[in-house]
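Input record, target 12 of the design panel.
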């Protein structure tokens, strides 16, 4: 019985260990006709490459709250940045402002993969 449990433990450890090393594909983001894609990076980062059709609202700018308050709180928003941490901060702040349909789609590469939107350098 101990050998069976030890073997089972090895199999499970190997299975979960290998799964932890693989990079999961981003889940497809729900894109509807009214979905707004928001890039919360700096204007300089946005200019170097952003998702096609994304609006730029820099979460680190003092104007972030006033700019976001101009958007309808009942809209659907996909938020991304470089790696996902600023997007998480933006989603948190927007939630506190009453926005309810927000999705953090992570960094720009993951956001592109999950939305199907190309990374472009023109507005």
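The sequence produced for target 12 reads:
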């Amino acid at each position: 019985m101990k050998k069976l449990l030890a073997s089972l433990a090895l199999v499970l450890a190997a299975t979960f260990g290998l799964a932890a090393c693989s990079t999961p594909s981003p889940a497809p983001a729900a894109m509807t006709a009214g979905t707004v894609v928001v890039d919360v990076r700096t204007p300089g980062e946005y200019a170097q490459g952003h998702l096609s059709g994304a609006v730029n609202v820099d979460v680190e700018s003092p104007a972030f709250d006033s700019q976001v308050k101009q958007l309808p709180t009942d809209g659907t928003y996909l938020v991304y940045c470089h790696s996902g941490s600023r997007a998480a901060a933006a989603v948190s702040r927007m939630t506190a402002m009453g926005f309810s349909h927000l999705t953090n789609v992570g960094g720009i590469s993951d956001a592109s993969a999950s939305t199907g939107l190309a990374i472009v350098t023109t507005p």
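The beta strands are 36-39, 50-51, 55-56, 76-81, 101-107, 119-120.
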